Amino acid sequence: MTKNEENKINSYLSFKLGEETFAANVGKVLNILEMVKITKVPKAPAYMKGVINLRGTVLPLVDTRVKFGMSETEYTANTCILVLDIDMDNDTVQVGALVDSVQEVLELNDKEILPPPSIGSKYKSEFIEGMARSNDQFIMILNMDMIFSTDELAMLRDTTSEQEEQLAEESEEAEK
Amino acid sequence: MAKTILIVDDSESIREVVSFTLENEGYEVLPGIDGKDALKYLDGRSIDLIITDLHMPVMDGIGLIKEVRQMDNYQRIPILFLTTESQAAKKMEAKEAGATGWIIKPFVPAKLIAAINKVVR
Amino acid sequence: MENFKAKFVEEATEHINDLESALLLLEKNSTDKALIERVFRAMHSLKGGGAMFGFEKISEFTHHLETVYDLVRNEEMEISENMLNLTLAAVDHLKLLLNEDISESEETEQQHYKLIEDITKLISEKESKSDNNENLPESAIEKTGNQPIKTYFIHFEPSEEIFNNGTNPLYLLDELNSLGESVAIPHLNKIPELNKLNPQKCYTYWEVFLATSEDINTITDVFIFVEEECTLEIQHLSDHNLLKNDAFVAKTREIRKSGKDIGITELQNFIKTISTNTRQLQKKQTNSKTTSKAKENAISSIRVSSDKLDHLMNLVSELVTTQARLSLFAEEEGNPELVMIAENVQKLSRQLRDNAFSIVLIPIENMLTRFQRLVRDLSSELKKEVTFITEGAETELDKTIIENLADPLMHILRNSLDHGIEKASEREKHGKPRQGKIVLKAFYSGASVHIKISDDGAGIDTDRLREKAIHKGLISADIQLSKKELLDLIFIPGFSTTEKITDVSGRGVGMDVVRRKISDIRGEVEVDSTIGAGTTITIKLPLTLSIIDGLLVRITDTHYVIPLSAVDKIFAVEHNKLVNTFNNLVILEEEQVPFYYLREEFGLPENTAETEQVVVVRYEEKRIGLTVDEVVGEYQAVLKPLGKYYKEQEIISGATILGDGTIALVLDTNKAIKQFSKQNIITEEITND
User: For C370-408, what is the HEC assignment?
Assistant: First the structure.
């Protein structure tokens, strides 16, 4: 590994999906694009938004929000497309990911990255590399390869445990 | 004037067989024991053909061919090399070095003459 | 050096293939001289090349074969069944010898010597001597000149540098002359002006007419030392000595005076017209056939590496895309001259594209020799009488597809021979002709290629299939399956109804593998069979061209491309005729055509326009309509893959980028209609419940 790459590992691009902030290692992000025309491909999984023309290549576009179990992305002036370099099945593929907005590039060293939470987190830990703190918020650093390699929509933890949590919450409310 | 052929081979028996055959055909034959030795004959005298083996000590056939092709007087002299059927790579090398043609060992006198007739008249 | 060796292996493989197919043809027509010549020539090349590139065993081996066929050529020996079998065995052995690892093995060695023994036995039966150590070109003195004298045309153009290695081209002309009688015409038109002339270079070339009783190999051998340093063309002109013909000699003088090159076709025509006498005329007609045959073979093919082809295809694709943008720009600019230029560019790029594709597509003919061989060998091994008929050998397929097809097809044929075709006596009992028939038919259908293999054998017993499936627990006893569904069972891994495991097709391990291999190349395989009558296996393959002629259409704001080869007709139809129909049929040109409302299929809202377009496409043997909003026009689509994220996607086979940068989706009509029809059946069933 070159010195340069070592440095790269510590730079992260943060972006927002809804109210939550996430970050991805800049080594995985090839490009950031503004919104362009998306051609929808019929009969595709819900999280596939369609395809876009990236300088003569047809790039598939994933709606990251849907992948994360949220509602579909609503386009605003801030909506961006991250062009990602993903390792999948011994191959490297490019894919576009829709995000609500892009924040900034954070320089984090290893000490600043905390292990992912084991309980109380909405998301399965294999998709999360770690957590970091910046500007008074917690940012989840994502394992982009894992997220964009699977077909799974269920980024979410086991629904049963989630349901239990919900039930617990509801009964608490009821008792009030 | 009789035509002169230079035969270069580190094997005495080959040199003798070739000399005998060619002298019978009316050629004058000069024997060289290796490439370097052969060069001493290339002193400006008239030589019509060089027949050389490829594997020789001191200076081998390829070396000789290359050397000869650099010499003003002998730049375009016909050169035949001796090779066995299995030396395909060497054959390519010799051709690239500038050889005119080849004779395959082992050969009978008639074959030797046929090859020579292709390049010397 | 490795490069040369690899090249030789390629060339040798071609020679061996050529040899094999010629031998198989020779079996049916054992006196065809042209075929014998072909066999001989292939062997001669193998012999020479083998020696040159370190394949001595091949050289030695083919030397013996060559001797046999030389005798045949000279009509001192006739082709016998035994000879052909032996030669075919030799061909197999040659294939082994090309693989250096195998050629060293003991087994191969033993086989090698046994074959040589058998071959030499053949020769000695005819009491002819075999030539040994044929290393050097023979001089004319050594051959007996009892052969008829023929006339050849030789074009000998030495490279400019030829003097550098001591060659004197004049000696070569002398040697040619020593083979018989010759007229040499020097051409001086390449000689530059004095101030540019380099005396160390050779600018002259010659055209020679040679009358000799020697054969073309001896003539070629004159040039053996200079093969790589000259352009050499040798053509057989006549089976007679034209130099004794006054008219011909006069013609040569004419040519010499004119100083121009000899146009070979013109010359051949001239030769035809020389003699109007009966006997000679007949002979000349066969001459022109052989010369044109020689010419055909001379219109040789060149080998191009796959990488270069791929690169070429990529460049052509990009050219087509850029040309689309140019055309669009020209239209928008409105400059008439620019529009014209853009149109020309479009025409040229279309031609270039067609040309490039024709290079990459290969006729399946090349594969067929293998199959014919298989059928021949296997049928004799199994003691069954079978004829093998092929149709559509000229059907072309992408080279990678052909490579991947060979194994599955071989397996299907094996099955047919082993389990399908019955023994002759059995067939007679059932009132069938003794000889079984297997037909391989290849043809285009819409945007696919179909390959059908049918036999008139025993067919597949669906009852037994059913029993076996129940026995294996694959289906329950009370389920009713249609014939098609039963037949489909053979594609299940491990399923085999044969009790015996034969060497030939093994344990029936094939059909599931066959299906998998075919689907790997995006194809489909189906089976149909009638017990007692025979079985037909149909393979359908997409034409995976990366640039297709398409019809650009629009649905809402997305553009789609429908492959033009699938399109039959386009109709404008009123909106209300397309909705709320019974059974989704619309009347077009007084015919009831089933159709699919694509907006609905794609989950889009209904169209509010009054008129819509129905594109009628060919699907299997039917015509099906597809509704779109608008038909934009014809379009050359450079196909770009959708990528791994859409690998489950079946109905869209790819995307293309339009001139204005937007993306159009390419519709695979076959897969789409198949999917739509399945879904509709399900929805109907649900609504019927």
Answer: HHHHHHHHHHHHCCCCEEEEEECCCCEEEHHHHHHHHHH
* pLDDT of A46 above 60: yes
Q: What is the ipTM of this complex?
A: 0.87
Within a domain: residue A153?
yes
Neighbours of C159 (CB within 10 A): 16
What one-character-per-residue DSSP string does C258-309 give?
HTPPPPHHHHHHHHHHH--SHHHHHHHHHHHHHHHHHHHHHS------HHHH
CA distance C688 to C686: 5
pLDDT at C274: 67
Domain positions in chain C are 2-138, 150-293, 363-542, 548-688
Give the count of domains, chain A. Answer: 1
pLDDT score for C133: 34
What's the token pair of residue C302? 């060149």
Tell me: pLDDT of B52 over 90: yes
Of C452, C393, C454, C377, nearest to C421 (Cα)?
A: C454
Amino acid identity, position A53:
N
Specify the fold of C548-688: SH3 type barrels. (2.30.30)
**Mean pLDDT of the C435-443 span:** 89
Residue in C640, C644, C649 closest to A58 by CB = C640
Cα maximum dimension of chain A: 60
Token couple for C55: 């394949």
> What fold, for C363-542?
Heat Shock Protein 90 (3.30.565)
Distances (CA, A) of C663 to A73, B61, C628: 21, 66, 17
> Chain B partners of C163 at a C-beta cutoff of 8 Å?
76
Rounded-to-integer distance, Cα B5 and Cα B28, Å: 6
Return all residues near A118 (Cβ < 8 A) that are at least 6 apart: A125
3-state DSSP of C190-205: CCCCHHHCCCCCCCCE
Report which of residues C484 and C440 the model is more confident about. Answer: C440
C225 touches chain B (CB under 8 A): yes
pLDDT reading at A48 higher than 70:
yes
Q: What is the pLDDT of residue C129?
A: 39
Say if residue C574's pLDDT is above 70: yes
Q: Classify C584 as helix, strand or coil.
A: coil
Q: Which two tokens stand for residue C596?
A: 């699919």
- What percent of chain C has a predicted confidence (pLDDT) above 70? 84
Superfamily of domain C2-138: HPT domain (1.20.120.160)
Flag if C135 and B79 touch (Cβ within 8 Å).
Answer: no
Query: Has residue A2 been placed in a domain?
Result: no
- Please report the pLDDT score of residue B98 as a whole number: 92
- Which chains are within 8 Å of C by 3+ CB pairs? A, B
C374 within 8 A of C410, measured Cβ to Cβ: yes
Q: Which helix (H) or strand (E) holds C38?
A: helix C33-52
CATH of residue A124's domain is 2.40.50.180
Q: Are A166 and A147 in contact (CB under 8 A)?
A: no
Q: List the domain range (segments joined by +) for residue A14.
A: 9-168
On the question of pLDDT at B1 being above 90, the answer is no
Element (H, E) at C100: helix C100-104
- Say what the pLDDT of residue A170 is: 55
Report yes or no on A173 lying in a domain: no
Q: Which residues of C touch B108 (CB under 8 A)?
A: 133
Write out the two tokens for B34. Answer: 């290796």
Cβ distance C602 to A43 under 8 Å? yes
Task: Kindly determine whether residue C165 and residue B77, on different chains, have CB atoms separated by under 8 Å.
Answer: no
Residues 6+ apart with CB under 8 A from C372: C21, C24, C388, C390
Q: Which chain B residues have a beta carbon less than 8 Å from that of C135?
A: 85, 104, 107, 111
- Domain assignment present for residue A144? The answer is yes
